[in-house]
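Deviations from the work plan: none for this task. Representative record:
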Amino acid sequence: MKLVLEKRETVSSFYRFVSPLLAIIMALVLGAAFLAASGFSPLKVYYYMWWGAFSDWYGISETLVTSIPIMLCALGVALAAKMLLWNVGAEGQFHMGAFAAAWVALSMPDAPAWQVMPLMVLAGMAAGAIWALLPAVPRAYLGVNEIITTLLLNYVAIYWVEYLVHGPWRDPVNLNFPLSAPFSSAARLPSLFGTRIHLGLVFALVAAGLIWFALGRTKWGYEVTVIGENPRAARYAGMNIERNIVLTMCLAGALAGLGGMAEVSAIAGRMTRQLSPGYGYSAIIVAWLAKVNPWAVVLVSVLFGGLLVGGYSAQVIGVSAASVNMLQGLMLFCVLATEALGRYRVRAVHAAVRGSGEGASIDG
Amino acid sequence: MGTVDYAVEMRDITKRFPGVIASNHVNLAVRRGSIHALLGENGAGKSTLMNILTGLLRPDSGEICVRGERVALRSPASAIALGIGMVHQHFRLVQTFTVAENITLGMSRPRFALDMAPIEREVAKLSSEYGLAVNPHAKIWQLSVGEQQRVEIIKMLYRGVDVLIMDEPTAVLTPQEVRELFETLRRMTADGKTIIFITHKLDEVMEISDRVTVLRAGKDVFSCDTRETNARELASKMVGREIGQTPERPPVAIGDPVLEVRELTAIGDRGTMVLAGIDLDVRAGEIHGIAGVAGNGQRELAEVITGLRRASAGSVNICGADMTNHTPRSIIEAGVSHIPEDRLGVGLAPNLNITYNAIMKRYRCNEMCRGPIVDATRARTWTDGLVERFNVKTPNLRTAVRLLSGGNSQRLLLARETSMEHKLVVAVHPTRGLDIGATEAVHTILLRERESGVGTLLISEDLEELIALCDRISVIYEGRIMGTVGRDELNLDEIGMMMAGISAAEKGDGHLEAGA
């Protein structure tokens, strides 16, 4: 007996809906095997994670807080993915957004909130957009692979922030810790419901709504859809592909930059070198799991926020932080696997398929 | 159990796809050592049936016997093991590999060390045996389409196939290559091999086949020995009615030129000069045909006119305005419609629905949107009108275009292209691969355009089509116009010679058939 893959003629819509769930379950099962092998009871670890992330109002609010930067980054990644652009650079755009917002905050310590806050938002979005523009222009006009350029620019952005907090921006009050001076209270994004949940959640939800509307209803969204499906047809129909690549990438960068701005302003309150545990990379997995649908991005981001927060509680019983990263990786792996299963079916073939085949019927 | 006289028997084969029955209790019996033509319009179920026979698809019910024995076909490999192989319309070759490498590709022997010498010897032997001249060391991309087809045939012979299925093998060949192919097929049957020949060209059926089966709408409607039938009968079996005569061409007043091309040159995908100084014009109310063997610059000419390829020198004037190297969009806005050669690859977005495809050139117009927002209701109403008027058969407007048959997707494309404000239609092989019904529909639309005073540049390989529709025919050869003949002075021999690169002035004794 051997297993063979057969191509399906159509992918059922039920499966398309269920496959991300299946992927998550598969990832949990595989993760359980790993946890068991490293001496932990998987059920206990998952229970701790669940308990930490969703069991009480504090856990839920922390989960939402963590999901905000992922959401904004993932919306950007998903928007670019709609045009078949691989924006792997959300992490860098996030850092540049945080940098620009911090720069505004630090240079106007005495300005009132109504002046400094809009400027921080604009600066954060602009910096993210510019960081995405750098790979977008060569991609659009010269065909330079954006996967590589966006990825490499992440390091530039991350080390730029490292340089600032170790060097020119380091707060002398802080005994050589790599931290900038704290922002004025006017430069802190307001929180909601007396928790750490901040206005960034509103930004993310508004952004999701706008993207959903723009893709489904506007001329620009129509162009993005056609370019993503068939660039040759788009060019033939007179659409300006180059301009749309640049525009879409800039919007994607602006969203990630806004995420960086919100994080540095609401959570950190100063520039630090540990702004992101890899939100921009989680965003890639989220965008995939969400199949590029903005509302699904919101949901999956919350799930991923929960995974991170739950990971922190699991560390209480000794599970390493790396194990949580591994669970994330397993999820992407399983998403790709279930996608393949959507297009193929696995069949067990019993006898060798050769000429004789007496009485072997043709089964469907 | 089946009879040993038959190479292949398919009995009562049924295959359903969501929403359609592609094969409806089909029977097909192919005698050993014969050429069996499988004739039918697009969507009649020819490809489905052959995909079942080659193990790509599994039937829902029915049985298959090969050389009298009932078999189960689970994969192309199991079909090959039974000696059944197919040469697809779109070749399955690796462009950067050599001929010999492609032939051995996917075989389990040799297992590890790849010694090409014996393979090349075998290839050379097969080529000379069946008249399939091809150099085993050549890389695929260096070969003409006809040579690539030979590689596919040798690939099958090398695998020991003795039932060879050819899917519309002549669609991409020049008349000369068709003749060579037929010679090869005859040699193969003389050698005891069996050929199943899928086509929708009647003259080929009459010329090459021993027996013919006609499929229509998933059923085998007719089967007989070829010498007992004729093209007219087969045509009526195919479409289920008597086919129409050549379309009517009422006289139309010819107006000012809508397209003037002067000394146009352009570089092709391979970096060579594909247009070497084209001079051409199309007047309002005229259909100007471009005849020529594929690959002589036809596609590139259309691309340069529509702004999809840069002209390296020369000019393109549209309605008197210089539009050389303008953007596709400004050329569309200048009134140029384009029916591209590659319908699904260029003209349509196959995964998107009908409405999305129908508004592709119209979504920017004021009537279709309010500000930056596309008015979905108006888009649907408008698409509905198009689908109705051009008789596009579809379950609904949300159907993805890839699910439409070839004829219906072409109808949709033509509907979109001829319903916008336009002065010039550039049509490239608009009926290639279409069945009789859809071809007639396309011809009717093009003639209607002519009557409404639109100029048409019709690029086609089908001389009959050009003769039926055109006011003038120019012949393109190696990126140059060899000559232009008016409708009244048509001479097939002359066109045939120009297609081979012999200009009217220097006609020697190079005898060539026009392939019409």
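Residues 257-505 of chain B form a domain with the Rossmann fold fold (CATH 3.40.50.300).
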